[in-house]
Amino acid sequence: QVQLVESGGGLVQAGGSLRLSCTASGSISRITAMKWYRQPPGKQRDLVASITSSGTINYAESVKGRFTISRDNTKNTVYLQMNSLKPEDTAVYYCNVLSGPPPSSRWGQGTQVTVSS
C-alpha cells in the first residue's frame, strides 16, 4: 500500500519561509510526476507547482519567483521551498503523486500553512 507523508507546514510571518516535503513509500510503480496543490479556506484546490520525472517544472503565476519545487528520486520525495510568503499563501497544502503503469494518482493528507500579516 502506498502512503504519502507530508511535513513542514506551520505558522510564519509575512516575508518568511517554509519548506514542505512529501515522501511516497510502499509499493509504488514508476513515478511520473509530483505536484503540490493548495486549498485556501472556502476555496477550491489549485495547482501550485509540478515536476515531472524528466525534470520539467511548472508554477502557478502567483508563486513564480517565490516558490521552488524539487525532488529527490532516490527517496521518492518532493519538496516545496516557499520564500517571501504572503498572507494569501495561507492554505492547506497537498502533495499529489502520479505513477504508472497502471496510472495512479495519490494524495497526501495535507499540511496547514498559515502566513500572518
Could you characterize the architecture of this molecule?
The mean pLDDT is 94. The radius of gyration is 14 Å and the shape is globular. It is built from no helices and eleven strands. A hairpin with a 6-residue loop joins strand 4 and strand 5. The protein has 117 residues and is mostly beta strands. Strands 2, 4, 5, 6, 9, 10 and 11 form a seven-stranded mixed sheet that branches. A four-stranded antiparallel sheet has the order 1-3-8-7, with no helix packed on it.
Layout of SSEs?
Layout: E1 3-7, E2 10-13, E3 18-25, E4 31-39, E5 46-52, E6 57-59, E7 67-72, E8 77-82, E9 91-99, E10 104-107, E11 111-116
Parallel strand pairs: 2-11
Antiparallel strand pairs: 1-3, 3-8, 4-5, 4-9, 5-6, 7-8, 9-10, 9-11
